[in-house]
Design a protein that fits this description.
about 120 residues, mainly alpha
């Protein structure tokens, strides 16, 4: 894989977070849920108890919170990538049966040893 494509893939992690924050920012700034279209004007719906500084502080708090979440996400993602995938452990028999006779002989051996009954009880 070309190196530029790998860097493009890495940058998409950051760009996804930017898109999330931009979407949230647009939704919060653009909507005015307390305003009723053509009934209540924006100027009439202003809260007299809420100051501009409080609004700015809450927006900055959310931006900082999202930035911290981005840093945590990148840290955990980096740690998971460096750790790598867990080794795959084989499940079931070491080899697959070649004939129907082997299938039924293994099943009868498992039933004789009691393994099949345990598996059937667990499945119920």
């Amino acid at each position: 894989m070309p190196r530029w494509l790998l860097w493009t893939c890495v940058s998409t992690v950051f760009l996804a977070e930017v898109a999330t924050i931009a979407g949230w920012w647009t939704a919060e700034v653009g909507r005015q849920p307390w305003i009723v279209w053509n009934v209540l004007r924006t100027a009439d719906a202003v809260s007299p108890t809420l100051s501009t500084g409080q609004v700015l502080a809450s927006l900055i708090m959310f931006a900082v919170l999202y930035a911290l979440l981005l840093v945590l996400f990148l840290f955990l993602l980096d740690r998971k990538i460096k750790h790598g995938p867990a080794p795959i452990e084989p499940e079931g028999p070491a080899s697959l049966p070649d004939t129907f006779r082997e299938v039924f002989s293994r099943r009868s051996q498992a039933r004789a040893s009691g393994e099949l009954e345990v598996e059937e009880n667990v499945a119920r």
